[in-house]
Amino acid sequence: MERTLPPADILTADERAALVRLIRDHVFQARIEDASDGSPTGLVRQFVQRLKRKQAFKGWRPVIDREKIGLPVTAFIAVKLKSQHHEMLSSYSRDLMSCSDVAQVHMVSGKFDFLVEFWGRDLAQLEAFRRTYVNGHPAVSGTETMISYGRSAS
């Protein structure tokens, strides 16, 4: 039987914060129990140790099935700020990262300053996020929102 997390509206604030941290942490370290036999756990542990010795191992990256946790909507929002002053860029980035709807924030070159990955329950949540953190933010001068229809198989 497959275990799934409860829908997003059932998660406690602490659980949601932990999930957001897990999603954002691309160097998530999984604990592998010590096993010296030929079990799968022991073989994985040996492989990971070899990768670590070669400095090729950065950690485990969780792949979250957002449908199962009640966050099926993904949008990418390109954001242009009124100024590219270091303090404004840093301040806006901190504001974005304080929001649990944000999976990732990238500072980018070109027409826009940031590319924000949003995960949410529905389009109403996306619109509320845009009103508060994007269009309603005093530092923002322009945006472009792209809603994802799906993700390519990897």
UniProtKB/TrEMBL annotation:
GO terms for molecular function: sequence-specific DNA binding. Coiled coil: none annotated. One of its GO terms (cellular component) is cytosol. Residues 78-149 form the Transcription regulator AsnC/Lrp ligand binding domain. This is Lrp/AsnC family transcriptional regulator. GO terms for biological process: response to amino acid. Transmembrane segments: none annotated. Gene3D superfamilies: 3.30.70.920.
